[in-house]
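step: validate -> pass
step: tokenize input -> pass
step: predict -> running
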Amino acid sequence: MAGQAVLFLLQVVTGVLSVALLLRFYMQAFRVSFNNQVGTFVVDLTNWLVKPLRKALPGLWGLDLASLLPAYLLQLVFVVAVVSLQSDSEAWSALNLLPVLLWQGVLATLRMSIYLLIGALLVQAVLSWVSPYSPLSQPVGQLTRPFLAPIQRFVPRIGMVDLSPLIAIVLAQLVLMFL
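step: predict -> pass
step: emit ->
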């Protein structure tokens, strides 16, 4: 029972921090302005970790590796915790288990990225109906535009309704089934 409680708390902490780090990574990659409520929150929450890492870990092709690497490492820590609490660790040697754990960390980071995309698509869909001129509409739109633009080329609007977010969510769910 205590192991489950520790695992739950670890999942919450690593999940929230990983989402913030991935959001920072994607906001920078898609050139989304940080001059909004979400951007300010993300920067304030992650600066203590990203700023020192930037000195040792430069960006690559314009990508902020100082935000992506800690998100991956947090997911790796969670995967290692799950494996160590739920399996007989003596059955596996550390050398045999290491590649599997590293790969599971990559998959967990990809899953987290897809969940972040789905969340952004849902927020965008709700804002487009409820408050299209909200201060969050522009940054969320900039985050989702690279995923929606290819779909919008093939799927026209029906009336005044854009079905591309729904199709993107369905496709993202399909990708999650294979991860």
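step: describe -> The CA atoms of residues 4 and 85 lie 9 Å apart.
step: cleanup -> pass
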